[in-house]
Design brief:
Radius of gyration of chain B: 22 Å
Shape of chain A: rod-shaped
Distance between the termini of chain B: 57 Å
Largest sheet of chain A: none
Largest interface: A-B, 23 and 22 residues
Number of helices of chain A: 3
Radius of gyration of chain A: 26 Å
Helix content of chain B: 55-70%
Strand content of chain A: under 5%
Number of strands of chain A: 0
Strand order of the largest sheet of chain B: 1-2
Number of helices of chain B: 6
Order of helices and strands of chain A: HHH
Oligomer: heterodimer
Largest sheet of chain B: 2 strands, antiparallel
Shape of chain B: globular
Chain lengths: ~100, ~240
């Protein structure tokens, strides 16, 4: 009976230690998650910028001033959201 | 007394002005710090590999660690096919890392806080990866823009979207590095300015912030170099192993 008690206290200590180190791990990845958040947000912004730029250039080529920039802006947003989903999926795979 | 926080990003020329065919090629402080980081990398690798001890010295350990770090990164993300691109990715990683780290020293200039530098690096990666993809797969590389299982009605729209997202790669790659470095250094300068303007009475709080930010900034400097290199690996992987 004494033996069992000893084992259970040891287990308790080990579990506590484990949870402590585990907590430390998640704390240290806080900065990494900042990087991840930044990664996703730039992904979204970049596609919108590229889409709008393409629309602007096409507009000045074909002389259809406001039309193509609007269309390509919306396409850029769509592409951005696709990119964000793709990146998020890739991140999830790694976890 | 108030110093302009953007003053640190000013590029000025050192020495005589060099003008070739109307292109200004003067040696600037930006070029100086690029040269400094390149020399630092070369000397690290030179002294690190000079004495090949079985039990490595500190400098040899750093060199070996940086080698195995990049090698592992490439084999994890881009597969064994990409082993031949190790020199390029190692150079890119070390250059960005050292430019960021040298920028953390007081009175130095952060090369990567200018979008033209980061955009050039990203454009080299983008154009290189595209050429590699076309060499490796020929016109089949265009399959990258056609995801599987899309109804034909939606195909034109999806292709345009995929092309836009492909073109956005260099933009997001360069903006990420540039914005991180610039925002961090501006913030450091702003808090430094607070310390001066609040004086002995209230200056301690911003001073503490400034110290914490310096630590964060060193971490960001490393992280951004890592992200830059790993995204290059991912794009390379897309080009080498075509699948969707």
């Amino acid at each position: 009976m004494k033996n069992l008690k000893e084992i259970s206290t040891r287990l308790k200590i080990a579990k506590e230690n484990f949870s402590k180190t585990y907590k430390k791990d998640t704390e240290s990845t806080n900065a990494a998650s900042f990087g991840k958040a930044f990664k996703i947000s730039t992904e979204l912004v970049a596609s919108v910028v590229v889409g709008t730029t393409i629309g602007f250039i096409f507009d000045s080529w074909f002389d259809t001033k406001p039309l193509l920039i609007i269309i390509f802006f919306i396409l850029g947003v769509t592409a951005g959201i696709f990119n964000v989903i793709k990146t998020a999926k890739r991140m999830q795979k790694k976890l | 007394m108030t110093s302009n926080p953007m003053h640190q990003f000013e590029v000025y020329k050192i020495g005589p002005e060099i003008n070739i065919n109307g292109i200004n090629l003067s040696f600037t402080n930006s070029s100086l710090f690029m040269a400094v980081s390149a020399i630092l990398i070369l000397s690290l690798l030179f002294f690190g590999t000079k004495k090949k001890l079985l039990i490595p010295s500190k400098i040899q350990l750093i060199t070996e660690m940086s080698y195995s770090f990049v090698a592992k990164m490439i084999s994890d993300t881009a597969g064994s096919n990409a082993k031949s691109f190790f020199p390029f990715i190692f150079t890119l990683f070390m250059f960005v890392l050292f430019c960021n780290m040298v920028g953390m020293l007081p009175y130095s200039f952060t090369v990567t806080s200018h979008i033209i530098i980061t955009f050039m690096l990203a454009a080299i990666v983008f154009i290189g990866v595209t050429i590699i993809g076309f060499i490796k797969h020929g016109l089949k590389y265009l399959q990258l823009f056609v995801p599987k299982g899309v109804p034909i009605v939606l195909l034109p729209l999806i292709i345009i979207i995929e092309v836009i997202s492909y073109l956005s790669r260099p933009v997001s790659l360069s903006v990420r590095l540039f914005a991180n470095m610039m925002a961090g250094h501006t913030m450091l300068k702003v808090f430094g300015g607070f310390v001066i303007s609040l004086g002995l009475l209230g200056g301690w709080l911003p001073l503490g912030f400034s110290i914490a930010l310096t630590g964060l900034e060193i971490l960001v400097a490393f992280l951004q170099a890592y992200v830059f290199a790993i995204l290059t690996c991912i794009y390379l992987n897309d080009a080498l192993n075509l699948h969707h």
